[in-house]
From TrEMBL:
<keyword id="KW-0645">Protease</keyword>
<protein>
    <submittedName>
        <fullName>Glycoside hydrolase</fullName>
    </submittedName>
</protein>
<feature type="domain" description="NlpC/P60">
    <location>
        <begin position="86"/>
        <end position="206"/>
    </location>
</feature>
<dbReference type="Pfam" id="PF00877">
    <property type="entry name" value="NLPC_P60"/>
</dbReference>
<dbReference type="GO" id="GO:0006508">
    <property type="term" value="P:proteolysis"/>
</dbReference>
<dbReference type="GO" id="GO:0008234">
    <property type="term" value="F:cysteine-type peptidase activity"/>
</dbReference>
<dbReference type="InterPro" id="IPR038765">
    <property type="entry name" value="Papain-like_cys_pep_sf"/>
</dbReference>
<keyword id="KW-0378">Hydrolase</keyword>
<dbReference type="Pfam" id="PF01476">
    <property type="entry name" value="LysM"/>
</dbReference>
<dbReference type="InterPro" id="IPR000064">
    <property type="entry name" value="NLP_P60_dom"/>
</dbReference>
<keyword id="KW-0732">Signal</keyword>
<comment type="similarity">
    <text>Belongs to the peptidase C40 family.</text>
</comment>
<dbReference type="InterPro" id="IPR036779">
    <property type="entry name" value="LysM_dom_sf"/>
</dbReference>
<keyword id="KW-0788">Thiol protease</keyword>
<dbReference type="InterPro" id="IPR018392">
    <property type="entry name" value="LysM"/>
</dbReference>
<feature type="domain" description="LysM">
    <location>
        <begin position="33"/>
        <end position="76"/>
    </location>
</feature>
<keyword id="KW-0677">Repeat</keyword>
């Protein structure tokens, strides 16, 4: 019985020691992001200790002057700032849809005159900040990376529509939808519709 009490007492001490260790470790980690100003400190001196300039410390702490006081807490890590940017594909799809209804024109590559399928793809990608040279549908097919699981913004290729071989290209919108410049102008179509399914060749990524 005494042996069991000693065992439990030892276990409790070990648990307490572990909890204290975790607590102080947490405190040390939290305090590592700040510095308490001491007598004789300056922003330049503190900055040199942490490998940053005094201007950076001023920016991190929203200071308008280099004056600091003893006991003042200074951030010594850059504050976390959200840098979320719109996905390139989001912008690409927006630009693509703005051209809905633009008429079809063989060899066309701008809204004012009309588009053919490859001219439309070239226009959309370049205006979305993805530089690409003008190519035919077959040219895009030959240079694109072939993928089996398409993502929004990938290219969709079709064969034997108005001529033999790769003859049409569109932009994948997700959910089996694509947008392209066809005979009826820039429009959205279902890849699984009877016509497009019959001519479907594959997907590619620029």
């Amino acid at each position: 019985m005494k042996k069991n009490k000693k065992y439990r007492w030892g276990l409790n001490l070990a648990t307490l020691a572990l909890s204290s260790s975790i607590l102080f470790s947490t405190i040390d980690t939290a305090s590592a992001a700040t510095y308490t100003v001491k007598s004789g400190d300056s922003l330049s001196k503190i900055g040199s200790q942490y490998g940053v300039s005094y201007q950076t410390l001023m920016k991190w702490n929203n200071l308008s002057t280099t004056s600091i006081r003893i006991g003042q807490k200074l951030n010594i890590n850059a504050p976390q700032v959200s840098t979320t940017k719109p996905k390139p594909t989001t912008n690409l799809v927006q630009i693509a849809k703005r051209q809905l209804g633009v008429k079809y024109k063989f060899g066309g590559n701008k809204p004012s005159t009309g588009f053919d399928c490859s001219g439309y793809v070239t226009y959309v990608f370049n205006n979305a900040g993805i530089s690409t040279a003008r190519k035919s549908a077959a040219g895009f097919y030959n240079t694109a990376k072939k993928v089996k699981s398409p993502q929004v913004g990938d290219l969709v290729f079709f064969s034997n529509t108005y001529k033999a071989g790769i003859s049409h290209v569109g932009i994948y919108l997700g959910n089996n939808q694509m947008i392209s410049a066809s005979d009826s102008g820039v429009s959205i179509a279902n890849i699984n519709s009877s016509y497009w399914k019959k001519h479907f060749t594959g997907y590619g990524r620029i």
